Request: fold
Amino acid sequence: MTVRRYPVAAVLVVVTVALVVVNGFAFWGDTFALWVDDTMQLAAGVGAVVCGVLVARRVHGHQRWWRVLVATGMAGWSLGQCAWSWYQLVDGRGLPSPSPADVGYLSFPVFALAALFVLARARVRPDRERWQPAQWTAHFGVAVVLDGLIVTGSLFILTWTAALGQLVRATAPDKLTWAVAISYPLSDLVIVVVAVLLVVFDRVDRPYRTNLLLAAVGIVALACSDSVFAYLVSIGAESMKPWSDGGFVLGPLFIAFALLVTPGQRRRDDTGSPGGVDWWQLALPYVPVTAVALLITAQLLAGAGPDGVEVFVGVLVVFLVLARQLLSLLDNRLLLRRVYDGQQQLTHQAYHDPLTGLANRALFADRLDRAVESTDRPLVLIFVDLDDFKEVNDRFGHAGGDVLLHAVAQRLLSCVRAGDTVARLGGDEFAILLEGELDAPQAVADRIQGALRRPFAVHGTLVSVRASMGLVVPDPAEPLVTSDVLLGRADTSMYAGKRLGKDTTVVYRPSQDGPPDFPAALRRAAGGIPEGFGLVFQPIVRLADETPVALEALARWTTRDGTVVSPETFVRAAEGAGLGAELDALVLDLACREITTAGLDLTVHVNVCASRLGAAALERSVGAALDRYRLPASRLVVEITETVPVPDLAAGAAAIRRLQELGVRVALDDFGAGYSSLTVLHALPVDLIKLDRALTTGVQPERDAALCRSLVGLCADLELDVVAEGIETAEQASLVTRAGCTTAQGYLYGRPAPLSALRLSAIPAG
Reply:
């Protein structure tokens, strides 16, 4: 029923009331008035049934089921009315009781009570349809039903003691008549109280408010006429005037209106606001209980104890009160649980980044403060800033940037232990706190940079990410160091790395000379060895017996103040300053000098940038070093590192052949990463391939093994030697051995160190 039809309904009610009043005067005789009265009652009942069925076919869920129940109850009531009309108009028995009509009449309260329960269930919002324990109490209306039963039982005891008990005992000739007589007031009392409680406890702006109010008015109207009917039967009246039957006409009419009304859309700004409940609403069920307690106390003091009916109903009310209290306890427990969960959620939100789930700045600062105060545990602080992150936002939008930040957070978590802290400080800045027994800090930083260099998938596109990192290892003996000081140092180191060319790791050391500047140190050396510059060597072993067969020379640089600058940082700085050739020549010369001075009969590997492949200066440097230190050319391997692509593959191939004519072997470093490809392998006639660590340290062992087998088999067909890089565990060693590799390099066999620190006993001397 829409708003525009409300005036029509009001007119219909006014007309019906007028007909009832006029018919009550019986201007055309009592018989005609009774016919009109019964016809109006039957028409109202059948009309309610028709309205319920028609609307139920168009709606679904709770809106359908409460209408079906009410329509079923009204159908039973209408059948009872048919039987009653037969007795009254055709058979002429007057007011027989009990009769088959009572079955139909008394079926309505049963179905109406169930309909009210379903209507109370309809309060649940659509997005909360999933079952929760609290809904069985507050949302499903069980608490309201229990309150209704408590009030009903209490009021019944009061009315039974006041008048109803004496009246029923005096007029009921047998138990069946007594049961029927008492069923009407009792059932009406139950359903009226439940309806009233639903109206009292319900929110005014609820979408089903109109349905409930109209149904409650109809139920109260029927109950009023039922009460008059019960009274007339109890006093032996032979007829019932049409005026007394007004409730039997208006009640079904209001119920029909309730069935016709369909709730509109709830206001969006009001869907989640809770309804208020005043203290008197909570106390309402217990007011009649208190009155009953006072009544029974007065009876006991007067020496006239309660009769059997009062005792039976009183015990029932006590059990209902206990059940209601249990439900209240359950509601309170669930409420406390929700409050606790809400507090936990708020606490988590207050100390964690909503995008990545990492610790936020506040939580990180708290943990860093505790770590600084705990002087007995070593710690390492790493500050990570993504390079050129703005380009990702410009290319993919902020949504794509958020996807990348979340993926970066997961990569960072995979690089540390479970007890370490990874935080997002804001934007594209992250911080990592390592506590307790630690690996070499530089190794952790290398692991993080290696993880971040693997491409990320953003909206179906692979994106390369680089990061500048500042690393701080506080000195336990340093006094008055605070978390803010450590963060400042990490931030300073990170920005120093950005100035050196990005994608770097700078370890903080106290400095008075400004940021590290390797090109300046290289120029000051004027062909000599820059201050703080040196080589470390890492063994390359034969997998069969783990015997060293070669050493790779790796450049290292430490500034005057003790700052350890990563090779990627100072090599890139030298390349950017146009000093890459001088650096390569310096490393080559130092490597040949140290290997011959140590008297080691091992091959030495030296890295050379691919951009200088084919340059005459490289070939002159190689020849000069071999002659200067009388190193056999067969013991030198030049590794082509592809930080930049080979500018001319044909010229590069010719340069490799010239080096091979000198007796020097040439290797392709980090194959499988950077710019290495099968095309490069086909074009350059190298002697050796070094498999990138990404091919041997992945997260899919079976896939890694298959790929390694394929590459090793390909190299065997091309008569190329293979060295597996980055072997750190026995499982990785087993993987590359099964794939066919015979030599390997990695932390499992030795970390980079000066020649004097290597296990020389395991290395055959020349």
